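Dear U.,

Please find below the material for section 3 of the report. The protein was modelled together with flavin mononucleotide; I have listed the sequence and SMILES used, followed by the predicted complex structure.
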Amino acid sequence: MQPYTALTLPNGAVIPNRLAKAAMEENMADNDHAPSKELIRLYQSWADGGVGLMITGNVMIDRRAMTGPGGVVLDSAQFGARFEQWSRTARSRGAHIWMQINHPGRQMPAAMGQETMAPSAVPMDLGNYSRQFAAPRAMTEADIADVQQRFVNSARLAERFGFTGVQIHAAHGYLLSQFLSPLTNKRTDRWGGSLENRARLLVDVVKAVRQAVGKGFAVAVKLNSADFQKGGFSQDDAKQVVSMLNTLGVDLIELSGGSYEAPAMHGQTRDGRTLAREAYFLEFARDIATVATMPLMVTGGIRRYPVVEQVLASGIAMAGMGTALAIDPQLPKAWLSDRSASPALRAIPWKNKVLSSIAYMAMVKYQLRRLSQGRQTRPHVAPALALLMQQLETKVRNWQYRRMMHGGA
Ligand SMILES: Cc1cc2nc3c(=O)[nH]c(=O)nc-3n(C[C@H](O)[C@H](O)[C@H](O)COP(=O)(O)O)c2cc1C
């Protein structure tokens, strides 16, 4: 399949090409946690660049549970006009925009000052950085029911405000992914133990969302092809979960991998396995494709045209890109005349894997920030500079968030 051929989804919607902008948390919400002018300008650059599908950075379903400060929250209709402007801008050249909806569970920074909850009271293990996250409490039945309702509520609102679909985030160690993994889900009730139980919340959320939205509205899932931690969610588990989702009207599954503890989505594992240098999860995706009945998308390490072709030739319907499109939002258009374009960031020379991963995120966010201001990107920014700027901004944003939630710092 060629990158510039359209994809018809199970719901009948047509995505104009096979190139997708993967979710990247922007931290660009305004003080109401609604989309800011800068955020909307950023999406204008991707719309102009010719990508077929944009998946938003994760949008929170509950303002008390944030993956980071400055995140967009959609838990009421109050700021609908700004969300409408966001979706209208992204769709202005014919692309689709799906809102990624998420709950962080235990992956919420402690500096935000909120209580964290998770399937079980298992704290994060990030070595010296573990204290960046508070120990979570185990969720009650009422908490679980509330989360499910919130996913539905946000999906309904996204449809109302002009998004063409939602992507339910069940990857990267966030709440739904915590339920899926035996390392973080130690429950002995119907939400833990067997894979069927660990997948129950994801399956229930997908069913409830599918039922709540219109037929033509896409419902997608982002899933780990594995956690890349010993004893975690395995490739075989992923295949079984995809089989469970086969009959639920899911329009696309995006395959990624890892978590904050093992950031495989950026090429690092913690179970000794090595990933491919490019399109990290393609081998896994090929295997999962043997059971999937819905289109698949693979994301992670794709930034060259021949790699996109390789992904599509493997029977994967879409190629997802984050970093490459943060550096060059015009890439889908550029490849039409110059197949050699391959955007890359400056290499990070540090050995500490956690720090390198944080710096990588900061370097990408630095590009997003510049695009949102209508400026050229700077892929050669020094990792230390991007990290410092990110930390300063996060400090300010955390303070603003605590003040808003508690009326004090
Ligand atoms: C700055 C940044 C923010 C990200 N935020 C999200 C997010 O909100 N949701 C998500 O599913 N993945 C997120 N990711 C992961 C990307 O979607 C993608 O899986 C990962 O970057 C690997 O793809 P790439 O090599 O093309 O960048 C983020 C990645 C970066 C670099």
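For the text of the report, you could mention the following: The pocket of flavin mononucleotide is lined by residues 22-25, 57-58, 100, 169, 171-172, 222, 256, 265, 299-302, 321-324, 361, 364-365 (CB under 6 Å).

Regards,
Y.
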